[in-house]
Amino acid sequence: MNDPIPPRASPGRCAPSVPGPRMQRPRTSRRAAAEPAAMRFRRWRQRGRDAAAELAKSKTGLAGGVILLLVFSVCAMAPVLTRYDPLKIDVTQRLQLPSCEHLLGTDHFGRDVYSRILWGGRRVLVVALLAVSLGLLLGVPLGLFAGYAGGWIDGLAMRFVDALLAFPGILLFLLFMTLAQAYKLEGVARDAILVTALGVAFMPETARLMRGAMLNERGKEYVEAARLMGNSSSYIVLREILPNCVSPLIVHATVYLGIVILALAALSYLGLGTPPPTPDWGGDLRAATDYMEQVPGLAVIPGLAISITVLGFNLLGDGLRDILDPRLAQR
Predict the structure, then answer these.
(1) 16: exposed, middle or buried (C-beta count within 10 Å: 0-12, 13-18, 19+)?
(2) DSSP code of residue 112
(3) Taking the mean position of all CA atoms in its chain, how far away is CA 139?
(4) Which of 19, 263, 274, 289 could form a disulfide with 280 if both were Cys (CB 3.0 to 4.6 A apart)?
């Protein structure tokens, strides 16, 4: 049999096209777009759980974490846990011993000591956290990019850091607080000056620490691989090197929080910190020294608050160092 001859298309007309399967544009669902973010969240959550499990194995770190958890919780709940206004004066109740009415007694103005300790702790912790955060914000970029760039940039940055380190910290605090008193700054403005002084004092050590970590990581193979892939310097520093330099930075910041709290107490004790009648541990300790013979506990209570908080930060810093330092972890 002969095969049938297909019909010829008439001139001026195109052969009818056979409809094929319709091509659909791939759609990206919101669930698929949000999947990487969810994966990152699960990864960071798992890292947090692993860090908490490692911290629980360290006795010093666990003790410091428990102390700080109690201190932060009690100070955060000061509006709920206190019945008296920390600024309210009642001369009829001055220098009272601890009782059911006043758990820690009253000071020389009749103000409730328990309320002043809790409200003063809120302010001290907030100022310390802001000061350390400012020091990290200034010191980390300076140390990272100075160590990565090298050459004259590194030399110039480190001479600037050395000049700040050569300047005594107490003189820097006195300079800032004297300016605040000269311009009669009070309230939030005075706290901002205090945070700036403490942050600037914390910055040089942070910059040197990050520079040393950068010099240690700069010549490793993963950095060279990132350069060969054509990544920019900022990408290499922030996305490749910085995550490997976080461990010593966490330990450094944790320990320095205790130092900042001691500096705040010292400035207030010298009359250069928080002006009265604002609740402050150092200021209350200074005011209580005149009445130590009558009510010894009046000076002991703010001193214990300072000591316990600083001890918590030191213990937590030692525990984190034991966990994050691989050389100590292998012992």
Answers:
(1) exposed
(2) B
(3) 13
(4) 274
Amino acid identity of residue 103, one-letter, is: L
Neighbours of 306 (CB within 10 A): 21
Q: Check if the beta carbon of residue 107 is closer than 8 Å to that of residue 292.
A: no
| C-alpha to C-alpha distance for 282 and 280, rounded to whole angstroms | 6
Q: Are 254 and 313 in contact (CB under 8 A)?
A: yes
| CA–CA gap between residue 190 and residue 90 (Å, rounded) | 28
CA 125 vs CA 71, 72, 112, 260, 290: distances in Å: 9, 8, 20, 10, 26
Fold for 100-329, please state it. Answer: MetI-like fold (1.10.3720)
Which two three-digit tokens encode residue 290?
Answer: 């005149």
Residue 32, C-beta contacts closer than 8 angstroms, at least 6 positions apart:
none
CA dist 259 → 189, 253, 319 (Å): 23, 10, 17
DSSP state of 85: -
Torsion angles phi and psi, residue 25, rounded to 5: -75, 130
In this structure, what DSSP letter does residue 55 have?
H
Per DSSP, the residues of 273-297 read: SSPTTS--HHHHHHHHGGGTTT-TH
Q: What is the pTM of this model?
A: 0.78
Q: Pull the structure tokens for residue 114.
A: 């328990």
Phi, psi at 11, each rounded to 5°: -60, 140
Q: At what angle do helices 246-269 and 113-149 cross, to 10 degrees?
A: 140
CA pair distance 191, 181, nearest whole angstrom? 12
Residue 277, preceding peptide bond in cis (omega within 30° of 0): yes
pLDDT band per the 50, 70, 90 thresholds, residue 68: very high
SS3 128: helix
CA dist., res. 86 & res. 181, Å (int)? 24
What does the domain layout of the chain look like in residue ranges? 100-329
What digits encode the pLDDT tens for the residues 95-142? 888 888 888 888 888 898 899 999 999 989 999 999 999 999 999 888
Residues 313, 320: Cα–Cα separation, whole Å: 10
